[in-house]
Amino acid sequence: MKPGGAGNGTIASPGGSTLLPTLPTAPLPVDAPWAAYGLTAALAEMVTTLAPEGGSALLLAPQPVLPGLTIGPCDLATLTPQPTAAGEGKLEPLPFDSGSFTCVILCDTLDLWPVAKRPALIAEAARLTSDLLIVAGPFDTPLLRTAEESVAEVRRRNPPGSRKRAAGRRRHSLPDGETTRAHIADCIDCEPMPLPVGALRTWAFFEMLQAAAPDLERETSLINAFNAYCNARFTRWDNGPPAYRTAYVAGRQRTPARSAALASLRQRFTATPHRTAMRAIMDMLRMLGETYGEENHREPQASLLDAANERIHDLEKKHRQQERTIQKLEDEIVGVQNSRDSTKQEGILKRLFTS
Predict the structure, then answer these.
(1) pLDDT digit string (tens) for 152-209?
(2) How many helices, marked H, and strands, marked E, lie in the chain?
(3) For the chain, what percentages of helix, strand and coil (3-state, to nearest 5) are there?
(4) pTM of this prediction?
(5) Would you call 232 helix, strand, or coil by DSSP?
(6) Phi, psi angle pair for 308, to nearest 5°
(7) CA max distance for the chain
(8) Side-chain half-sphere of 74: how many Cα atoms within 13 Å?
(9) Residue 324 three-state SS
C-alpha cells in the first residue's frame, strides 16, 4: 500500500489527560529515500493485516523517522522515549495507562539506548499495548556489519557538501536479535515472528548512492526520480533476506484469524524477488552510473559509484558463500538422518527374516 497522511490531532491516554500529537498530515512523498519509504510501507502493511478493525497505535521512534506514516484505520501517535541519565536499566514510565494502545511500534530505537536499558524499554512498550508489539530495526550480524562498514567507507570519501546529509545516527552498539526476541517473548508471553524489512543489498546501494552524489541540483533531481521509480514499483519485492532491518512481531490474541494473518505476512515478507523487477532495477542502476560519468568533471563521482558497486558485489559473494555453507550443512544433516533411517530399516528386515 502507498504510505499516506492522516488528519492532525491529538490522542489522549484513556486513563489520564496527557495528550500526544498525531503524525503530520503530509504524506510521505513517492520520491522519498528508498529505505524510509519501504519501512513506512512495511510497518503499515503489518499493522493493517493484523489489526484490520483499527484501534490506536503508538510509534516509539527517533523523530522524524517515519514522516507521513498512516496505519489504515488506526489513530497514530508518536513519541521519542529518552533514557534517563541515572540508573542503569531504569526508565521513566511513559504517560499512559497499561494497555492504552492496540499496537505499539518500537522502531530504530534500541541502538540509541545503552544495552542495559533496552530490556526496560521493550518492557515499557509491551506494557502500553493491549495486543500487538512490533520491534523493528537493524540487528547485529556479521553481514550487516560488513555492509555498514562499506557504506561508512564511501561516506568518508564524500564530497564535503553531502557529508552532513549522509551522517550516521547510531549512538550505541547494534542490538542482538536473539536477545531482543527473548525479551519480547517474556513480555508478551508469545513467540515473536521475525520479518525481513528492506533487502540489505538494496539498502547498501542507496546509502552509497546518496553519499556519493554531490549536492548539485542535477544529481539531487536524478536521485529523487530514481527513488520515485523504485518506490512505486519495487517496494513490495524488497523485503526478502538478508535484510537490513528485522521486525519482530508479537501479539496477545490467539485466534484462527490472527494465525492466518501471521502466515500471510510471513509469506509476503519472505518472497523471492521477481526476476523481471530486479532486472529493471539493475538497468536503472547502470543508467545512473552512466549518467554520472557523462562529463569529465563527473568521473570522480562515477568512480565512487563503481566502488559502491564493487562493495555490493562483495556482499553478494559473502551471502552466496553463507548460503552454500548452510545448504551443505543441511545436506549433511539429511544424509545423517537418511543413514540412520536406513540402519533402522536394515535392523527391522533382519529381525523379520531371522525370527
Answers:
(1) 887 777 655 544 444 456 678 899 999 999 999 999 998 999 999 988 888 888 887 7
(2) 10, 8
(3) 55, 15, 30
(4) 0.71
(5) helix
(6) -60, -45
(7) 88
(8) 29
(9) helix
